[in-house]
Amino acid sequence: MLESTETHTNPEGVDDQVRALLPHACDWCPRACGADRAARERGVCGAADQLRIARAALHHWEEPPISGDSGSGTVFFSYCPLRCVYCQNHSIALGSTGANVSLERLVQIFLEQQDRGALNLNMVTPTHFAPIISEALRLARARGLHLPVVWNTAGYETVSSVRSLQGVADVFLTDFKYASAETAAAYSHAPDYVPVALAALDQMVAQSGEMAFDEYRGQSRMTRGVIVRHLLLPGRVEESKRLVELLWDRYGDRVLYSIMNQYTPVIDPAGPVAKRHPELLVRPTSQEYEELLDHVDSLGLEDYFWQDGEAARESFIPTFDLEGVL
Asked: Which of 33, 126, 222, 318 has the most C-beta neighbours closer than 10 Å?
């Protein structure tokens, strides 16, 4: 582990501390692309030898025990191993939005979020930078960081990656996107998504243990546990029903569930994705969402998060303007 937080930058602008933590054959996500990121080779996720961030600010649109009233101290990392064709945050998933920062700057960002009154630190799409984030958190804690850490992921993780977060991540805020290999292949180029995500979620649940909450500045917040999110996609209500059944049968009330209807079409109507998947150009109907919620209720799942009809708005997509980054 690195002991110094002094920033050393080489002539090409790459932070030597970041580079020292990078793999020569990357297997940090299930793609296991083998990229030599320490030698500037880009992985399937798009990341190479620089730490890139698009936004670091208080976010008020997570689930209540994550955002509370103060807001969650989100840090949006650029690039993504999954890169879904309908991605709401496509500009950062592709890395076209963001700024390269040093390890020292990331430590400062974490402490600044705490100073803003954040309820927690929320790492958004962190997988491809996980060891760098872990080191930055260690250094920040040595300087007084005390907030719980939320690991906000698409759910496409390796078991070994989740294990490496023991003592790093307190709360897992994870997607579970699909119930079929066909849908996962079509929308995320990941036909193995279901078994991979289940294995990762098994580890998250085992690793987190019993859910825990506390009072912080007059607000209830989650300090340990797992929240599983599922976003209803247009025309996929039957698959969503199967997915919730799968999760409820497997985990019961050991996790919290968040059933979301905030899908917002961001696909170019004239582009190739729209030609292959015209169904993604519309929002799910309110009837589809109500049908899914009725099915959730019928399973006996009583305590879960759901969204009203105003959730699917572009205003729920943050502005990635480098706020809090530089």
From this structure: 222
DSSP assignment of 60-84, as one string?
--S-HHHHTTT-EEEEEES--SS--
Residue 180 burial class via C-beta count within 10 angstroms: exposed 0-12, middle 13-18, buried 19 and up:
middle
CA gap 171, 36 in Å, rounded: 30
Sign of torsion over alpha carbons 51, 54, 59, 65: negative
pLDDT digits (tens, 9 = 90+) for 211-248: 999 999 999 999 999 999 999 999 999 999 999 999 99
- Please provide residue 205's backbone torsions phi and psi, each rounded to the nearest 5 degrees: -65, -45
Amino acid identity, residue 41? E
CB atoms closer than 10 angstroms to residue 310: 10
Q: How far apart are CA 305 and CA 179, in angstroms?
A: 20
How do residues 91-131 score in pLDDT, each as one tens digit?
899 988 999 999 999 999 999 999 999 999 999 999 999 99
How many residues comprise the chain? 326
**For the chain, the helix, strand and coil percentages under 3-state DSSP, each to the nearest 5:** 35, 20, 45
